[in-house]
Design a protein that fits this description.
With 137 residues, this protein is an all-alpha fold. It is built from 6 helices and no strands. Helix 1 packs antiparallel against helix 3 and helix 1 runs parallel beside helix 5.
């Protein structure tokens, strides 16, 4: 199999993984909106498996993106499908990150995050470090 066909095959596989993760994250968001915390706990094992898949898929996406950039521009122009797949992969990752951040905020609002996992209150104050410096000068 030539390099372009391999990249396309890898990207298609990664896109399916990203879609699966996006679906799981959207399901979690729906469960949070309905305050169904037991649904969130049910899929913990599947989420861990998906996280491992995600780490591998992101690494492969980066490698394929780098390989794609090393090809001559004329070769890249002949395969617009790969550019589309790369963009869809990046878009899916961004959607997952945005949904996950919203889910995290919903968990915090509902009090479902243990106190030990909460961020420091000072991280929420952007001018905190500046005020510390000005007080200690």
């Amino acid at each position: 199999m030539n390099l372009v066909a391999q990249i396309e095959s890898d990207l298609q596989t990664q896109l399916e993984i990203f879609k699966e993760i996006l679906l799981m994250t959207a399901h979690d968001a729906d469960a949070l909106r309905r305050s169904a915390s037991e649904e969130l706990e049910e899929n913990t094992t599947k989420k861990e498996e998906l996280l491992n898949k995600l780490n591998g898929a992101i690494a492969t996406l980066k490698r394929n993106s780098d390989l794609w950039q090393t090809l001559p521009p004329t070769e890249r122009e002949r395969h617009p499908r790969i550019k589309t797949l790369l963009q869809q992969g990046h878009d899916a990752i961004m959607k997952v990150l945005m949904l996950d951040r919203q889910n995290e905020q919903a968990l915090l609002k509902q009090g479902l995050v243990p106190a030990s996992m909460l961020p420091s209150a000072n991280k929420q104050r952007p001018g905190y470090v500046a005020s510390l410096y000005s007080r200690n000068q």
